[in-house]
Specification:
This protein is mainly beta and 105 residues long. 0% of the residues lie in helices and 27% in strands.
């Protein structure tokens, strides 16, 4: 009798790394007229898990988030760029993916 093919397992997403931003002094300004542009943008992103192989592989797990640290001793200016934050610090864990389709032959 025929048996359905076994799908491969999706790989896990890699973990995010620690991000550290330090402004010792001086100034940071956003570009004039560019809306939504932060003076400092620090991001740590976990990897996305891979999809499971067809037809029955399991999806990979998303990578873990990590620490984002911003230390500012300078002057940040965003007045010339509407809706712009001074500092945007984000840490995201990666998303898992989808498993393989369940339609073995």
């Amino acid at each position: 009798s025929d048996v359905g093919a076994q799908g491969g397992q999706g790989g896990d997403g890699g973990p995010a790394n620690t991000v550290t931003v330090t402004i010792e002094g001086g100034s940071v300004s956003t570009q004039s007229g560019v809306s939504g542009t932060p003076a400092i943008w620090a991001q740590s992103l976990g990897g996305i898990g891979a999809a499971g192989g067809n037809p029955s592989g399991n999806a990979g797990k998303g990578g873990n988030a990590s620490t984002v640290t911003v230390t500012n001793a300078g002057v940040l200016t965003t007045a010339v760029a509407p809706h712009s934050p001074g500092i945007l610090a984000q840490s995201f864990g990666g998303a898992g993916s989808s498993g393989g389709r369940g339609d073995g032959w």
